[in-house]
Amino acid sequence: MDALTLLHERSSMGKLMGPPPSPEQLEAIYRAALRAPDHKELRPWRFVEFSGDGLSRLGELFAEAEYREDPHVGDAALDAARKKPLRAPMIIAVIARVTPDIAKVPKIEQVISAGCAAHAILLASHALGLGAMWRSGKYAFDPTVRKGLGLEKDDEVVAFIYLGQLGGRHKRLAEHDIDAFVEHWR
Question: 3-class DSSP state for residue 58?
């Protein structure tokens, strides 16, 4: 697949099945992620891989976050939180490992760099014939989840990328009017 086809055809895949990506596929995925733009070579990324029992442990962390937010939360909501990570055979949490007070590299630039690494994971996954979905939601910002993942004060969860084999149909890609997004200064 050529690069422009990859960029034009990549889409999120919500329905994912096992098995998880192979070690060879993961190596290719991480190699792509590590090519993200990186001002001053800070390498402001950290990846946490969840599979097997790790998915259940992440689900327990999500349930704990729900309970800490509302100690009166019902069992159904806790069960739903526990099941969220089980929607894919693997999840990669992409974390911006921010180095504060770096001259000419503000926090936002480091977070965006980690976002570029997350996007590279999506692109590499698509190129390898895998399905991927970028999710964040409230758990990415929850203090219980942040603590459970070992984040420092300035770190940010950029994405929970759900990975697996394609489990459904590719949805039709929307066509966008380029002129609606581009402003010309000539």
Answer: helix
